[in-house]
Prior knowledge:
By secondary structure, the chain is of the alpha/beta class. Strand 2 (55-66) and strand 3 (70-72) form a beta hairpin. Residues 5-9 have low confidence and may be disordered. It has helices at 3-12, 15-34, 74-83, 87-107, 120-123, 128-139, 154-158, 161-173, 192-195, 205-208, 215-230, 243-251, 268-274, and strands at residues 40-49, 55-66, 70-72, 113-117, 148-153, 177-183, 200-203, 234-237, 256-257. Ligand C2E binds at residues 45, 61-62, 73-75, 78, 87, 91, 94, 117, 119, 151, 181-182, 205, 238-241, 258-260, 264-265. One magnesium ion (MG) binds at residues 181-182.
Amino acid sequence: ISQREAGSTYRFYTPEINTRALERFEIEQELRHALERNEFIVHYQPVVDMNTGTITGCEALLRWNNQTLGAVSPGRFIPVAEETDLIVPIGEWVLQTACEQGRRWHEQGLNLRLAVNISAKQLRRAEFPDTVLTILRNTGVDPASSSLTMEITESELMEDAEGTAKLLKNLQARGLSISIDDFGTGYSSLSYLKRLPVDTLKIDISFIRDITRSHDDAAIVKAIIALAHSLDMKVVAEGVETREQFTALRAIGCDAAQGFLFSPAVLAADFEKLNGRCFTPQLS
Length: 284
Ligand code: C2E
Ligand code: MG
Ligand code: MG
Ligand code: MG
């Protein structure tokens, strides 16, 4: 190692980076015991139908409250879980927990579409389809009633698109729905859309944020909706926070929306209280 490289290597270890490396290390250590210590909980965020204003489903979002680190956001721990493959057992637990909840809601007469985030690390496991089908069987969720959606991010779908297409077709044939999460952020060719068995596009929050102020963002969202509809897909807008965004999205034909305007992700019991509410641009 040359003098110069040694110098730059030395400079790499700034206190700030040390702190970050330490934090990541702590998260990893704590994450290894999080399942057995029952530190996870699944919250549910409503998905609102733009035409009726009613809640037609929800997205399961993982929450982690650690004994020493406190509440850690998914943005911090999910990447660590993915790098360490801990996402495989953790993701399986989320799926199991969400399906158990979906089954209870179904028994209460609530017919909700349940969306669960699936990491590429889970998807690439040879046993993944069996794991999903076993969970559905054990929890009594009927995949044929098409009530379970798997959300996969655009960038993750793009790695090995051929293999993924085959796998997803297999799951779709058994009644599961597929949704592309954070759509528009993957910088990918659109031609893959016709090869993948996709039911729904979730437009990333970054395009929704300025939709009422930015002509460009509005044009992009309009184009995504037109594209999706012409391919027989539904569109969900992520991160709807204002009435104005709601109205604008409704006017351009967006099918459904999620966001703080309606509700953040909440405990199952609180989600039940939201159910039956009608969200219209005037009332909400
Ligand atoms: P995502 O799947 O795109 O989920 C949407 C994120 O946007 C959630 O953040 C949600 O709380 C947030 N959100 C919803 N409405 C609004 C809004 O109106 N404004 C703003 N600013 N944000 C809003 P969260 O829960 O922190 O999750 C972040 C990401 O972590 C998720 O993005 C997903 O990629 C990942 N994640 C969460 N739970 C799981 C899980 O069980 N498995 C996997 N593999 N990933 C998960
Ligand atoms: Mg998602
Ligand atoms: Mg998203
Ligand atoms: Mg996201």
